[in-house]
């Protein structure tokens, strides 16, 4: 199911003027605070009425100002996952989950409640009330409630922002399963590069109410001009496959024919996943390095060099695993004689990648 969005709307401190078409899967709205992400989601939900625009899900129109069409929120068949779970405190988990089904039209395609409960791992929580749940458990219940409304589209407005790192690591795999196992498109808001790398089928990068880039996560995250955190968020996104779990606690991955070693990943042999390699965790060498503790050395050629306003530069290296980015100084670029087409080696520390940068099982993305 595809999503088509066209919006024009004036706010006191922001002017929205944008359009994008998104394929099935997870479409991430990515940008700094104040770029218009939440306003877009609320316009799709019907909580904000834009001056002009059109939104359609797989051809089904939610509104079109040119035709005078405006469906009220309760008729749009949307599931909305907020930053906090926003569960009804007086209802049990079971009652919260099934609350939304009363608003689903007769004959609508429904997800199996048993499948949703199993997928989210919340079967043991059904008789509890929200006050007895952790933050991560509340968000899993909120995801389940959204799914059981039989939605045509799921909206997720920074659903991990209120969670600590441990709870984020708990919830991310469930969004990955949602992307891979449920045939409902998801419009997902975040300013986290790690969430983009792991979840996005398509990324819409926003600045001041406009789309400045639209494409795969690997392309958007390689551009420091569009990332909310600038060069600190720049990194490569690689698709890899589990080859072997070694007895010393490392997992060996196949990355385009090259081996990468990471701390043990809880996936089966031959399963595929995404990993994000921040540019600041990569160093470059003009010769194959020896005598290093780093296990991951990828041979490639320099593709592009992008100098920053300060002393730094982002170097893109084309390797069999894909493009790897390195954040280095311009002095290092000159000292190594780096230029497009020159052979070089990208060195990545085995323990440099944070757990949130290592994805779970990947299918169909």
Annotation keywords:
alpha+beta; cell inner membrane; 2 domains; OB fold (Dihydrolipoamide Acetyltransferase, E2P); Rossmann fold; 365 residues; 5-stranded antiparallel β-sheet; 6-stranded mixed β-sheet; 8 helices; 36% strand
Please describe what this structure looks like.
The protein has eight helices and 20 strands. By secondary structure, it is α+β, with helices and mostly antiparallel strands. It has two domains: 3-216, 3-Layer(aba) Sandwich (Rossmann fold); 237-357, OB fold (Dihydrolipoamide Acetyltransferase, E2P). Helix 2 (93-99) packs parallel to helix 4 and helix 4 packs parallel to helix 5 (165-181). It is globular and about 65 Å long.
CATH fold-type name of the largest domain: Rossmann fold
Number of domains: 2
Helical content class: 10-25%
Order of helices and strands: EEEHEEEEHHHEHEHEEHEEEEEEEEHE
Gross geometry: globular
């Amino acid at each position: 199911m595809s999503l088509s969005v066209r919006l024009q709307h004036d706010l006191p401190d922001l002017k929205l003027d944008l359009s994008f078409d998104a394929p099935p899967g997870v479409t991430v709205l990515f940008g700094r605070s104040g770029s218009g992400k939440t306003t877009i989601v609320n316009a799709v939900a019907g909580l904000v009425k834009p001056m002009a625009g059109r939104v359609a899900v797989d051809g089904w129109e939610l509104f079109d100002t040119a035709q005078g069409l405006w469906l009220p929120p309760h008729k749009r068949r949307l599931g909305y996952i907020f930053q906090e779970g926003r569960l009804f405190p007086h209802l049990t988990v079971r009652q919260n989950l099934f609350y939304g089904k009363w608003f689903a039209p007769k004959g609508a395609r429904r997800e199996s409640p048993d499948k949703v409960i199993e997928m989210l791992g919340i079967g043991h929580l059904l008789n509890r009330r929200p006050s007895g749940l952790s933050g991560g458990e509340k968000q899993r219940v909120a995801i389940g409630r959204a799914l059981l409304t039989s939605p045509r589209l799921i909206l997720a407005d920074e659903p991990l922002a209120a969670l600590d790192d441990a709870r984020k690591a708990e919830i991310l795999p469930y969004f990955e399963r949602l992307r891979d196992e449920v045939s409902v498109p998801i419009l997902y808001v975040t300013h986290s590069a790690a969430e983009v790398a792991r979840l996005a089928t398509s990324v819409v990068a926003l600045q001041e109410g406009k789309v400045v880039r639209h494409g795969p996560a690997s392309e958007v995250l390689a551009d420091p001009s569009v990332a909310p955190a600038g060069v600190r968020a720049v990194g490569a996104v690689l698709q890899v496959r589990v080859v072997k779990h070694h007895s010393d606690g490392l997992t060996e991955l196949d990355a385009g024919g090259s081996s990468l070693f990471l701390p043990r990943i809880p996936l089966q042999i031959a399963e595929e996943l995404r990993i994000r390699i921040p540019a600041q965790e990569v160093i470059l060498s003009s010769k194959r390095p020896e005598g290093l503790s780093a296990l991951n050395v990828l041979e490639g050629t320099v593709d592009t060099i992008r100098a920053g306003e300060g002393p730094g530069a982002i170097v893109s290296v084309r390797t069999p695993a894909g493009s790897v980015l390195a954040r280095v100084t311009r002095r290092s670029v000159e000292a190594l004689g780096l230029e497009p087409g020159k052979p070089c080696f990208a060195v990545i520390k085995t323990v440099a990648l944070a757990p949130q940068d290592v994805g779970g099982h990947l299918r169909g993305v």
